[in-house]
Amino acid sequence: MxxxxxxxxGGGPRPVAPFSHAVEADGWVILTGQMPTDPAxxxxxxxxxxxxxxxxxxxxLEIVLNGVGLDLSHVVxxxxxxxxxxxxxxxxxxxxxxxxxxxxxxxxxxVGVTALAVxxxxxxxxxxxxxE
Length: 132
What we know:
Blueprint: E1 5-7, E2 22-25, E3 28-34, H1 49-67, E4 75-82, H2 85-97, E5 107-112, E6 122-129
Parallel strand pairs: 4-5
Antiparallel strand pairs: 1-2, 2-3, 3-6, 4-6
Helix pairs in contact: 1-2
């Protein structure tokens, strides 16, 4: 096994806890869960509603992926966390799926949670694989 590489992406979202944006080993790239914060204005209020927050989270995942030379087409699995599962699940799904081709949806788990950092409604982490 290759030694892990710990990535912090310049211009990426400001971490809300002590973590790397991504850790890479043997072609696998594991991204830390992203929040709906704006990398250009990290102290700005969060976007209103689950759709806007989901878009911002997905855009933040794209920033981290691009920072390691990948994109959403390399994502093989996502874990999604919603604070208002029953209320937001359908709207979340509509926004989330717009980021992937219908025939290339990653494996996914979505969990309802009691709270997320920074008062977010949604957080998503993912695993990507480098092409061989």
